[in-house]
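dumping the sequnces here before i forget
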Amino acid sequence: MTWTLVILPLLAAVAAVLVRSDRIRRALLVATAAAHFLLAAACWFAPPVLAPGAWVGFDAAGRLFLGIASLLFLATAVYAAHSLGREARGRQTEEDTGSVFVNAPEAVFTACLLAFLSTMTLVAASRHLGVLWVAVEATTLATAPLIYFHRQPSSLEATWKYLLVCSVGIALALLGNFLLVVASAAADGSDGTLLVTELVARGGTLRAPWLKAAFALLLVGYGTKMGLVPMHTWLPDAHSEAPSPVSALLSGALLNCAFLGILRAHSICAAAGLGDFSGGLLVAFGLATVAVAAAFLANAADYKRMLAYSSIEHMGLLALGAGLGGAALYGALLHAVNHSAVKAGLFLLAGNFLAAYRTKTIARVAGGIRRLPATGLLWLAGLFAIAGSPPFGTFASEFTILKEAFAPGRTAVGIAALAALAIAFAGMSKAFLGMALGRPPDEAPAEREAAATVWPALALLAASLVLGFWIPSGLQAGLEHAARLLGGGVP
Amino acid sequence: MNNALDMLLVILVLTDLVLLGSSRLRNAIRIAALQGLMLGLLPLLAHGHGLVWSAVLLGAGSALLKGFVFPALLNRALRETNARREIEPLVGYVPSLLIGMGVLALSFGFGARLPLPWPAPSQWLVPAGLFTVWTGLFLIVARRKAITQVLGYVVLENGIFALGMVLVEAMPLLVELGVLLDVFVAVFVMGIIVFHINREFDHIDADQLRALKEPAP
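..and the predicted 3d for all of it:
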């Protein structure tokens, strides 16, 4: 079951390269996504038995992140199958920079997209930190060609930064893995391990100084991939230059994968009695991330970059929640689900704006509701969802995190986080409202919107809306189980 | 046995210094290849239990990739991009070497003080590994050519590989091979991107890649 989930998309990727017809390839993409989603759902309802020493398998945390990735991939695959047909052939002109470009071959794009799904599945399934490392680096390599789909200088620049910064970051995480082996080995250097369950079981017998150094390196390494400040510099470039379905997956699914790596390391520290150390680091990075992202959100000029900075902000919240521990860790996991759904939906809507207005500049987009009624209305709803206002699920999850942040003795953390969220909301609402309201430039008439461009985003936003009222018992149990597994608690 | 290991590590440090002071790209690629070949020998010398088949396999794979495949890839990129040497690096060669000397001394100080739970196969191992990691990072941030940055990434991996040899006997072979495969694909993809950078910008100076940034408030 586990290996089927990893290998199925990989086989489909090979097939995608071999298939000649674009239509068959797009059908293959959607069919693979649907099959993967069904298998992942089966994994939820009938979890396969986990062998204690298995390197690969889905525990509660793995299942949660697998579910997010699989759902998002299905939504974006439906959207991408349509948007690939919408993409012009031959030479195109980017209106913002005036550069002329062509697209990368669609077969390569689809193959990389499917390989990306496979590597993300492997990240979620990893119970061995070595395998996790290999899988996370593989996600970087699978996504680099996706960011360079539109072959123009700005995409190339984004790809280069992404590839280099993330690879160097991940290399430091490898060093962290080595130190972890030292922390766990016996006095003669034998018997070291990277198996998460084994490390958690050894707990207090791990060498504390080495474990601390290992956690710091893992946090910097996977934090680079997750977009924590100050290692976030590549993220706004990569997430804004990638085609919109890819941006949706990068922000919604891939950042979570890196977060899972940090959570695994944190759970080992917590088991060893160093939870205060690792939690403190996470809170510091989380707060810095939320604050810096809010500053950039207050002054955004490009709507895809704005969404990317918003992803950074929410990753900061996740790190904050994980660091605060207890019920906040549960809140962080719930927030990962909510943020992924909302952010992926928003990036898909941003793709519709980009296709209609041919610009990413906020100031040049107006009258969204008149020109693209469905997209415009969903965009407005998305503002409230991403800002964490009721009745969306993001409100419940942010509230759970902030409630812990305001616990006695650390009120300053809560106040700082809340202030940053308010600044971010003010900046984003200005941009969102300006784009949705008013009159479109040139008085362009309302366009017919294809179902495939609207429904995936609608479904994702609706999922977050439903989570605001009611969390299905299966998901609730999964979240609680995962929170306890990772060393947290339940509200 | 141990003398050979010490010798190897001294050469590793020397190659790092040559990389810091060399402007010819072809030369730098050759030096990095030499480094890769030597690192292939490291598992054999560092594991004190005679010839273990996993150590042989790992060493051979690493030497093949870093000694032959990477240089071939990078040389191909070099031919296609027509770059000869690094012009006007962000940090000059003499300052680079001086900083390098300082960091080398620090690495030794740190290596001597590091309370390893068990004795390393050689007291040179930790300082040489750390210094190689630093050299890789330095090449990435202080040089302009994209190809030198790829080279820096390779050197950084070499350093981590060396440290891993020292610290870890228990790292499973499968994971090591996975790491090696990832590094291979990374260098491969970077090579392709370097080629595209050259085509788009007519040169491979990565510091020209600075169009993407926030507008001034």
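The longest helix of chain A spans residues 153-184.
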